[in-house]
Amino acid sequence: MNELRQLARKLLADKTVGVVIGYEEGQGAVTRPSFATSPEQAEKLVFDARCVQNLASYLSPRRSTVRSLGKPAVVVKACDAKALAGLIREAQVKREDVVVISVACGGVLADPRSGKALSEAMVADRCRDCDGAHTSLADHKVGQAKAPAFGSPKVDARLAELQAMTAPQRFAFFKSVFSECTRCNVCREVCPMCFCARCMADKSEPQWIESSPHLRGNFAWHMLRAMHLAGRCVGCNECERACPAGIPLSLITRKMQKVVSERFGYSPSDDPNVPAPTGAFRLDDAQEFIR
Amino acid sequence: MTGLYTPYLMRVDEIIDETVDTRTLKLSFKDPKVAQSFSFVAGQFAEYSVFGSGECTFCIASSPTRKGYIECSFKKVGKVTSQMRELNVGDTMGIRGPYGNSFPLDKMKGKDVVFIAGGIGLAPVRCVIWNVLDLRKDFRDVTIIYGARSEADLVYRRELEDWKNRADVKLHVTVDPGGQGPAWQGEVGFVPSIVEKASPAASDAFAVVCGPPIMIKFTLPVLEKLGFAKDRIYTTLENRMKCGIGKCGRCNIGPVYVCKDGPVFSAAQLEKLPNEF
Amino acid sequence: MRKAFITQENLSVLSGDLERAGRKVVVPRPSATGRMEYGAAQSGSLTHLGGALPARSLKATFLPPTEALLRWKNAKDDVVLEPSEPKALPTVVLGARPCDAAALAILDKVMDWDYHDDPWFARRKATTIVSLACDGVDSSCFCTSVGLSPDTTKGSDVLLTAVDGGYLVEALSEKGEALLEENKTRFTAARGEAQAAERRKAATDKVRKNLAVDARTVKDWLGGNFEHPFFKLGSRCHACGACAAVCPTCHCFDIVDEPEGLEGGTRRRNWDTCQTSKFTLHGSGHNPRNDQHARLRQRVMHKFHIYSERFGETLCTGCGRCARACPGGMDLLEALREIDKLRRSSRPSAAPIVTPTNPPISGGAR
User: I want to staple B80 with a disulfide (CB 3.0 to 4.6 A). Which of B41, B56, B73, B173 is the partner?
Assistant: First the structure.
């Protein structure tokens, strides 16, 4: 913690950056995003298993209030680094415009409000297949990286169950969970990769996607989102964490990730130079439609 | 069911192209009973619908003294206005209203009235102008100062001609510098400076101002300099609305609901509001 | 008003009785996604109603996330309109949280402001609300700061309090009396009153510890400090509107047309939120509320200044859902604490924002 604060203090004091985006104590037992703009404010930075938020979201070009704070340094976990790499890969953030502080993370809690300690039962699902290494994007590394020791992701077991269903059963399942959706668009707004200035779902001439939260509109929305994030979603799971309706969105994002991995041999990477399947063109592409 | 959100059906009777992107529709009520009973006062607005595209908020641009029909003037900017441009004579539209407050015509009686408008801002002002002209003897001097970016952007040209030829109206029409053609005979200059130049007497007068925010911003100090009291300068606001009846929460400016407390506000009222319009 | 007692078992039986009598029964129960949410009871399986607040409020029962306002049909050279009858089935809510019931009484004010919102009131009229004195208080609750309490009766027709062996039952309105009368065989004489009072006081004391601010007193400070730097709150806000989605009193809506083929379509009203830039964006591209600081200020203002100025009610029940749901860690309790501090340390502002008092003209032909 001291190491992190010292580093932040230095970056702010020598004006390397205008803001350090990290975590601070929130209300109650939780932590929350922090925007330290002075060396004094660096004193409030913390990092531990409660720091679930993906701070790369705040680097999205849509966050004008954050952009106005000046050049950012951002505290990233290994998983968040993939989102930052995505933003760099897709030309939303210039690598040289951000200072990356990689923190050693031994996994975060699925529900920090629970007040429970990190354990096999309490760990966020996405941490289960994380190698725990510092990102290669790091300008500064804080803490000793440690390999995680958790079982395999539970979402995979649930996907296997879904896969074993008949198509009508699967349809019934998605119908029931999508019936809870109120089209609040929280999943989109918290997503680091949903940075479009004007989302296709908000376009009205023509209106491709109905904005009403009936099943027709909800299916259209979640399918559109899945397609637009295929090969781009990094699996940070902020959408599922934030969904006011508790819709298991990771079932969709994880499935898309698997499809992309099988078809294109691509998994979310923290190297911005690794081409993403939807952002690169190859003459020897395995998919026929592109030739 | 009274159908609070159910519009009256209207027939498009006439289409008038004002400029390249601005159009006026003359609409009549399909239900003769509604045509009889529908009444409004100058300054009120309505929710116009094109079924399939949705609703859009405009003032009523015709005068309440002209019964049996209403007119709306609009610029093509979004989904609904694009579809409104596709309508032909005989097509059906909807209208909910009238909603909101009005210009204080009763207070204006027996006084001079100065109308100042820019661009399509003439639409809400035109409603009051005709209301005043139709009851001409109730008012004293009438001055109209109207400006647009260029000659091609002037709306209600036939009426401008009419007002120009009336002995009981002082009309000043202006275009922004560079907006005049070779045959232009009106003024050249921005509206605030033309107001200053025309210098209408303020001692016993009301002003009605409507136009782009930037025009209003620079015109108000000119009027105050000329001696207009802030509670005798009126304008109308167009915040985004959906319901028009104080429910949907969209049109707040500070504690004000534009749809219910407005759309007509005096400069004295505006001064006290936060800058969120 | 009468008091009675009902066992847990009889409450479950009552739920079945009500359904057989043609009423829809809404209770807190696990939703399709496994969260505790208000929804239709599953016949005969009513378990204890208490515990933590349902994840989302009760407002969807009265202001659905989407509802048809009218249908239009394209006829030859004409359009035919069919206003939608609101789906207002006779309903009983069993185990509403008192804060969620209070929200309905608060929202009645705006829904009846000159124009009577028929769909809202059709459902309000058709519904009897049986609340349960809250036994799920957590660290985000602050109902006592907005003049309510875990056992507030506002908006409820009947109040239940869990006591040993069942619930103390108190009728609060004619609707509540009628419910007890129609189902009197399920109730016995009132008992457990002392225990109920004790539990209710304990819950109230617990909430009081969370926020020692009377949120009704911040109104004037807010009115005079629109431009205060305090409102630079927007950095951690994602503009996602999760707060509005879970809020019992956020009621802003959108109206949209949805064509269904060429024959016609449906005009619907859908939930909306002031936290998105789209909400106030003009067709011209001008946006009066152009950054997230301004949009968050609007949320605070609407709840603690605008609504109370207009309707004499705070547009907040202190349920704390926004604080629990915010993915960025915004916390209304903290904001109120800060505002209260500023209020105490400031002199009355010289120029408070004044609401114009010119009386609006109500609709002409209607």
Answer: B56
- Closest partner residue to A180 (CB to CB) among C32, C293, C323 is C32
Q: What percent of chain A has pLDDT over 70?
A: 98
Token pair 């913390």: residue: A46
> For testing the chain A interface, which of C36, C66, C237, C272 should be mutated: the one with the most A CBs within 10 Å?
C66
**Interchain proximity B254–C306, CB inside 8 Å:** yes
Q: In this complex, do B78 and A205 lie within 8 Å of one another by their Cβ atoms?
A: yes
Residues B42 and B71 placed together within one structural domain of the fold: yes
State how far residue C203 is from chain B, nearest Cα, in angstroms.
Answer: 34
**C292 contact A CB<8A:** yes
Distance CA A187, CA A253 (A): 12
Examine residue C360 and say whether the peptide bond preceding it is cis (omega within 30 degrees of 0). Answer: no
Higher pLDDT, B117 or C282: B117
Average pLDDT over residues A52-74: 94
Residue C50 banded pLDDT, cuts 50, 70, 90: confident
Give the total number of structural domains in chain B: 2
Cis peptide before C259 (omega within 30 of 0): no
The mean pLDDT value for B20-33 works out to 94
Q: How many CB pairs under 8 A join A and B?
A: 6
Domain that holds residue B122: 105-236
Does the residue B13 lie in any domain? yes
Contact of A242 with chain C, judged by CB distance below 8 Å, is answered with yes
- pLDDT of C362 strictly over 50: no
DSSP letter string, C214-234: -GGGGHHHHHH-TT-GGG--G
For β-strands B69-75 and B22-29, DSSP reports them as antiparallel
Residues 6+ apart with CB under 8 A from B56: B47, B48, B49, B50, B74, B78, B80, B81, B84
Kindly state the average pLDDT of the residues B136-150.
96
- Chain C: touching chains (3 or more CB pairs < 8 Å): A, B
The answer to the question of residue B61 being in a domain is yes
Q: What is the ipTM score, two decimals? A: 0.92
Helix residue ranges per DSSP H, chain B: 32-37, 79-86, 105-108, 122-134, 157-165, 191-198, 213-226, 258-261, 267-271
- Owner of token pair 């202006």: B174
Tell me whether residues A26 and C331 touch, CB distance under 8 A. yes
- B3–C83: do the CB atoms touch at under 8 Å? yes
Same-domain pairing of B142 and B174 = yes
The pLDDT of residue C349? 54
Interface of A with C in 114-173 (CB under 8 A): none
Distances (CA, A) of B170 to B116, B141, B146, B163: 12, 8, 11, 8
Residues of chain C neighbouring A65 (CB-CB closer than 8 A): 234-235, 237, 291-293
Q: Does B77 touch chain A (CB under 8 A)?
A: no
> Cα A205 vs. chain centroid, distance in angstroms?
30
Q: Which residue of A has its CA nearest to B53?
A: A204
CB nearest to B265's CB, from C69, C227, C356: C356
Instruction: Clarify whether residues B75 and B120 are in a common domain.
Output: no
Look up the CATH number of the domain holding residue B201.
3.40.50.80
B28 contact partners, CB below 8 Å, separation of at least 6: B10, B11, B13, B35, B68, B69
Residue B264 in domain: no
* Residue range A87-122, pLDDT digits in tens: 999 999 999 999 999 999 999 999 998 889 999 999
CB contact under 8 A, C114 and B260: yes
Query: By the 8 A CB rule, do C263 and A262 touch?
Result: no
Sorting pLDDT into bands at 50, 70 and 90, what band is B210?
Answer: very high
pTM greater than 0.90: yes
Task: Read off the tokens for C90.
Answer: 């006779």
Contact call for residues B52 and B45 (beta carbons, < 8 A): no
Strands A72-76 and A99-103, by their bridges, are parallel
Q: Any chain B CB within 8 A of the CB of A207?
A: yes
